[in-house]
Write a structure and sequence with these properties.
The protein is α/β, with parallel strands linked by helices. It has a six-stranded mixed beta sheet with strand order 3-2-1-11-12-9. A six-stranded mixed beta sheet has the order 4-5-6-10-7-8, covered by helices on one side. A hairpin with a 2-residue loop joins strand 7 and strand 8. The chain is globular, with a radius of gyration of 17 Å.
């Protein structure tokens, strides 16, 4: 089975459609979304509807999804992110809210975990960026492969006898995950990459061959940025799309 694992779409329909079109070439059997469908961008309802239409879709809750689907103050977000979430709340359809309400905090399946952030505390929205954070994630779980998002940075972390090894995947690189090691795989961000590369990022996992393919896809950043500005959202959310930051 081939799984397309996507995360952090952030209401960027242009990037999402480009990724879906690319995945079609690989005959994907199932899509898994690791959260943050909404936030930052200008097309939250379109993105939710498109995610909901994908074959075999399972959607994991992200911190922007969780904040957008409820009422009350916005905590633990920078001002631009908070403004975008409030804007998103005011525009979500009933169908979109219902979809967000049904999103799972965590999925465990066939020796894999799928989570938005650190899987040992899925609703605390902890990052996995350091060796200590990686060790804690491995120690508090037992599954072989942990798929995450949240940081917007594509990454493979390998647990070895001597510790953890961080690997920044090259463009369209394929890595093997069938050995005795355990792995944390961050699929990066579809709609707002932050590794200096503006192209959309996602991964394809072949469960039979045990291979992980990191993909980078060009999309119409200009159109996505223009929509953000036209919606009255902070201009910095538009300009960062061109630089992958």
């Amino acid at each position: 089975m081939r799984l397309a694992i996507i995360s952090d779409i952030h209401s960027n329909i242009e990037a999402l459609e480009a990724v879906i079109a690319d995945a079609a070439v690989f005959r994907i059997d199932r899509f898994i979304c690791l959260g943050d469908i909404v936030g930052y961008g200008a097309n939250p309802n379109l993105c939710i509807r498109r995610i909901a239409s994908l074959p075999g879709i399972v959607s994991i809750l992200g911190n922007h999804d969780e904040t957008a689907r409820r009422k009350g103050p916005v905590y633990n977000m920078n001002p631009n992110a908070g403004q975008a979430v409030l804007w998103t709340r005011s525009r979500l359809s009933r169908e979109s809210i219902a979809f967000l309400q049904k999103m799972l905090p965590l999925l465990k399946q066939d020796h894999m975990i799928f989570a938005h952030a650190a899987p040992w505390a899925p609703l605390e929205w902890r990052y996995v960026l350091s060796a200590d954070q990686a060790r804690r994630s491995f120690y508090r779980t037992k599954e072989k492969i942990l798929f995450i998002g949240h940081t917007h940075l594509p990454l493979m972390i390998r647990q070895e006898m001597l510790g953890t090894r961080f690997e920044n995947p090259a463009e369209n690189s394929m890595m093997y995950a069938g050995d005795k090691n355990r792995f944390i795989i961050n699929c990066g961000s579809v709609g707002q990459p932050r590794d200096g590369d503006p192209r959309a990022s996602y991964v394809i996992y072949d469960t039979k061959r045990k291979t992980i393919l990191f993909r980078r896809i060009r999309y119409d950043c200009q159109k996505a940025a223009e929509k953000i500005v036209a919606a009255g959202l902070p201009e910095s959310l538009a300009t960062r799309l061109f630089h992958g930051v």
